[in-house]
Amino acid sequence: MTTTGFEGIAINAWSVWLLPFIGAAIIAAVARAGHRVRDYAAVGFALASAISAATLLPLGLEGAEVHSQIPWISSLGLEAGVLADPLSIIMANLVAWISFLIMVYSTGYMHGDRDLTRYWFFMLFFIGSMQLIVLSDNLLMVFFGWEGVGLASYALIGFWYYDRKKDYVGVEGHIAGGIPMWTSPTHAGMKAFLMTRAGDVMMLAGMFLIFAYAGTFGFVELAEDPAWAFAMSQQNLLVPAAVLLFGGAIGKSAQFPFNEWLLEAMTGPTAVSALIHAATMVKAGVFLVARIGPLFFALASAGAFSVEQFFEVIAWVGAITAFLLATQALVNPEIKKVLAYSTGSQIGYMMMGLGIAGLSVNFVEGFTAGFFLLISHAIFKASLFMGAGALLHGVGSRFMSDMGGLRIHMKKTYVFMLLAGLSLAAAPVITLGFWSKDAVFASVLESGYTFSTPLFIIAVVVAVMTAFYTFRMLGMAFFGKKSRHIEEMEHRGHHVHDAGPRMWVPYGILAIASIVIGVIGFVFEADLEHILGEYLAESFGIQGGEEASEEEAPVTIAPEGDRTWFGLNPTAAIASIGAFAVGGALGYIFYIGRHVSPQIISRSIVTRAIWKFLYNRWYLNSALYWGAVIGPLAIYRFIWRYFESTIVDGINPALQQSMSYMSGVVKAGQNGITQTYLFVFAAGIMIIVMLLFL
Amino acid sequence: MKKMVDLLSSPILVTIILGSVGLAIPAIDAGRREKGRDRNRLYSAIAFGALIVAIGIIIFRVLTGEVLPAVAFSQEVVVDDMFGSFFAIALLIVSIMVTASSWNYYKGRSNPAAYYSLILLSSIGMVVIAYSTDLVMLLVAWELMSLPTYALAGFSKRDPISNEAAIKYFMFGALSSAIIVLAIGLVYGITGTTNIGDSISALANLDASLMPIGLLAVALFIAGFGFKMGLVPFHMWLPDAYEGSPTTIGALLAAGTKKAGFAAAIRVIVLGMFALNLDWTLALAVVAVFTMTLGNLAALVQRSVPRILAYSSIAQAGYIMIGIALAPYSDQALSGSLFHIMNHAVMKSAGFIAAAAVATALAGYSLQNYRGLGRRMPITAIALSISLLALAGVPPLNGFWSKLVLFGAGINSGPIVEWGPWLAIAGVLNSALSLGYYAWIMRKMYMEDAPDMRRVKEPRAIVAVLIFAIVFMVGFGIWYTPLLNFASSAVPDLTSNITQASTITGGEGLRALPGGSGS
Q: Which of A73, A663, A675, A679 to mutate to test the interface with B (most CBs of B within 10 A)?
């Protein structure tokens, strides 16, 4: 169903992203009417956007598509448009409803902050930009949204720009490779902004490369006529352009080598971390891959050229990031940072799923796995972050060593974080995390890709570590004795208690959702695969799964053979359960049961060295600062000294003085005497006449 | 035979509405004079309402498609076409902004009834110029537009600067009117008609011996209209007059009457020169470059904001001239000019009105008064900044797109005329130069502190006008397509007019005057 302009259901699709922008534009004016009105208005705009998204849901489930365009930059033939297909409708609903819950949570978490108007402005601006990425029908508008979320992320990471010590992240005094590892909010915001910008520049280059050949940014138009892709592959430019586009995705999604910013981004308010750095913005990269991946895959199968390297890059970047960040999460003392590492690592899984999709015979399976993990991770990680925010509020410290024993005092938070944490650790059968992670495992195993075994081994190792750090986090926060910090607080008369309902209801809903959907996880996955399969078949002509067997398409044959046990791949399921058992057991022994003290690692030089290596983040952060900040600065200083201050500074005053001189000359003629003016007028007529006669 | 003018056409309706209201205001005032209260707000509201109705009628007629597509000529004295409607909308927007902001600016000054009445009458003149297809009609409308503005320029009776401005403006106005009358006389003398279309086709078939007179007529038209457009070298009066007039009237002159000059110039000169087969484009290109360069250079060292804006409007006229000079070579040139005219009408009005707000609140025009304005009068400061950035052509504001279209026309005409791209380059360099003084004002507003940094109350009506201008400049900056499409639809189809002319000249021995019109 294609509509043009603002008509019918298309209005709903437009309003999903327009409403938050309108809210952002007027929130400062609304704030005049009082704080309460302002807060309700902000949440109301998020809700309105979410309802608009929900109205699209029936269409998405039917596999229908709304494509509406209006003329925009006519000289380039560009049109602005929304494309609401099943992929974007599901994503838009996910974003909209999680945003709404987090906005509700914010009314509690940010209560009484003096800059709340600014907070609402950027949150609404973020939601609008994010929905713009999700719903727009062309790369250029995606890019606008992309920059919008980047700006909002920057502004919200550094939201507490007055840099109080308690808003820092990192352990004060921790220096690795000569670089301080603790960071102020403003510094963290700048770091995030600059690092994601590096990815965005690559993305822009990729976009314009494609535009140069295709003459359009539109997803639909790009899919319709594969001639451009053929021309580009002739020049060996197709894979580079795709990888450049992917550069934007890895920047935004904090994948290796652009992973460092996400950890410092935790200086923002926890609601921001939950929304932007867990549930939505960092998924934008995954979403972009989900948008363009099928396109390249379909083009390649139609045009008989290979884009395999592109998908290989995606899969391996995902695998490396998943491993890298999981190892670092094992040793970090800060609860939000553990969650941040975990986010990056889980996104690595998603990338792995989407990458493997393009390498396997059955595209739909891997695609579904990656997207399913995106959905489930958004739900349980948002819940975990909001729970962590409640802990921070209750305890007043970001360090897990300052918590401990909180399961008695913060019962609700404990229950909900346990539920969501089980999902993260992928506890078998009943959790959303299990089903989605298993789907990724299965698609890797069944892909038929040459190096699927190493990928699978990495995935399983990461799963072990995930289970371990999840239990470590839960154990340190909720089990054992009260920390000295809490005892001091109680001594001073503060009692640690659960946050109010405005805070726990949102994360409660998401935690319960992660289990409820988990219980029916298999059905959910099958439905999702069905919807996405139809979507891929209709939009890109990619056959797979049931469609392939029904229509007996000879192109792809789904390897149904292995899938016997509840539709699970037994190898994958056993590996997944085993990983949970091993990681979980270790975590239990060290941190929940506390049978063995974690201090044992300091006994051996080897384990201590590994610990230090991980704790110092593989020295990647140090390398980044030496290579990208300190080194270039030295070069700039050299240039400034020997080029700027001598040559350029010599030219500039001359230019300025010559302009002033000429200005003076012109001004001198304007002497205010009417006779002069009349003379010039008359002379002007003569000149015009002469010019015409000549 | 001439048909009767259709009474339901836009120019007639606008004339009737604005004329009756414009004459009614002094009548109301005469009836109420004894009460001695300040009637400024009442008259402002009445005039505002009348202008809104007038622009509403025009927009409605455009939207319902009742106006003709842009035609160059007509057998009637006025024609209700897209070209005229485009200018009428731009000019009425300026009048509306001026009237609305006078609600505050003109408070407590003498003789408000005459002030608003004159604005309305001048607006009639501007609108009718845009619709005129007959030289006599054009002249009458021209005078109707000009005469009220002479009085308005000198409206601050006790202010010697205002008086000097009015006198200078009047002297040059009278001179240029005389020049236009002379030009019309010459045209009538050699073609026997005052209808623009007829006279141009007659000029196309002119006897060789009469050719110099035709050329002289065109040169005089350029001088006469160029006076209003502020083209170098007919610009000398302009900074003095714009600066000395009441600031809102500065807006009316810079954004309104000046644009009416362009309307007349496009109807008469551009099409007229086509007919004469003159190589006139280079002359206009030279004028364009001189105009923009001189305007920008002179603005660099000024210390009074209205005066800077006045010089800037000279420079902007230069940019608009690029499109007129390139009209025969590129389809987009004239649409770029029209687009820029519409944008400039709003940008420049916003600039002058922001200056009026400062003058109202702080009683000063000098740059020194603008220090710390960002905190003292935040909305005024942001509106002024946006309008300055738009004038400089910074994306994504509307001024950027119209300059892009104009300069793009210059680049695109490269294969036909080698100096086309140079015009674009001159335009780009001048835009860079212009930032020198635009940014200077912004620096004063945001980076320097005034001795007294207390918040000043911003006049309400002016704030409303400025917010409208911000929405216009930013809104049409992000989504300019409708405006550009409107501008393109308002450009008369030159090629068809050229073919008309060439079919007439194509025949042999047609050197005599066309029969029927007599001589």
A: A663
Number of Cβ within a 10 Å radius of residue A5:
13
Q: What are phi and psi of B134, to 5 degrees?
A: -135, 140
- What DSSP line would sit under B30-47, residue for residue? HHHGGG----HHHHHHHH
Contact B166, B148 (CB under 8 A): no
User: Which residues is A66 bridged to in the sheet?
Assistant: A84
Query: Which of the 8 DSSP states describes residue B195?
Result: B
Q: Confirm if A676 and B173 have CB atoms less than 8 A apart.
A: no
Three-state SS at A7: coil
Burial degree of A188 (CB within 10 A; 0-12, 13-18, 19+): buried
User: Using CA of residue B376, residue B380, residue B384, residue B387, what is the dihedral sign?
Assistant: positive
Q: A242 pLDDT exceeds 80? A: yes
Which residues of B lie inside 8 Å of A (Cβ-Cβ)? 167-168, 171-172, 175, 179, 212, 215-216, 218-220, 222-223, 226-227, 232-234, 236-237, 239-240, 278, 280, 282-283, 286-287, 294, 297-298, 300-301, 404-405, 408, 433, 436, 479-481, 484-485
Q: How far apart are CA A456 and CA A462, in angstroms?
A: 10
Instruction: Specify the 3-state DSSP secondary structure of A428.
Output: coil
Measured CA to CA in angstroms, residue A345 lies from A341, A459, A686 at distances of: 6, 10, 79
| Residues β-bridged to residue A2 | A67
Whether A359 contacts A315, CB under 8 Å: yes
Do you know the residue count of chain B? 519
Please name the residue of chain B whose CA is at the shortest distance from the CA of residue A680: B233
| Contact by Cβ (8 Å): B168, B191 | no
Q: State how far the Cα of B345 lies from the Cα of B263, in Å rounded to an integer.
A: 13
Ramachandran angles phi, psi of A81, nearest 5°: -160, 165
pLDDT in tens, A448-489: 788 888 999 999 999 999 999 999 999 999 988 888 888 888
Q: Please report, for residues A280, A285, B398, B401, the alpha-carbon distance to residue A143 in angstroms, rounded to integers and kept in the order given.
A: 16, 12, 21, 20
Are the C-beta atoms of A414 and A336 separated by less than 8 Å? no
Question: What is the mean predicted confidence (pLDDT) over B216-244?
Answer: 89
As a whole number of angstroms, the distance between CA B455 and CA B457 comes to 7
Q: Are B309 and B355 in contact (CB under 8 A)?
A: yes
From CA B184, how far away is CA B182, in angstroms rounded? Answer: 5
> What residue type is assigned to position A163 of the chain?
D
A619 has which bridge partners? none
Mutate to test the interface with A, among B175, B300, B314, B488 (most CBs of A within 10 A): B300
Containing A73, the helix (H) or strand (E) segment is: strand A66-73
State pLDDT tens for residues B423-459. Answer: 999 999 999 999 989 999 999 999 988 888 888 888 9
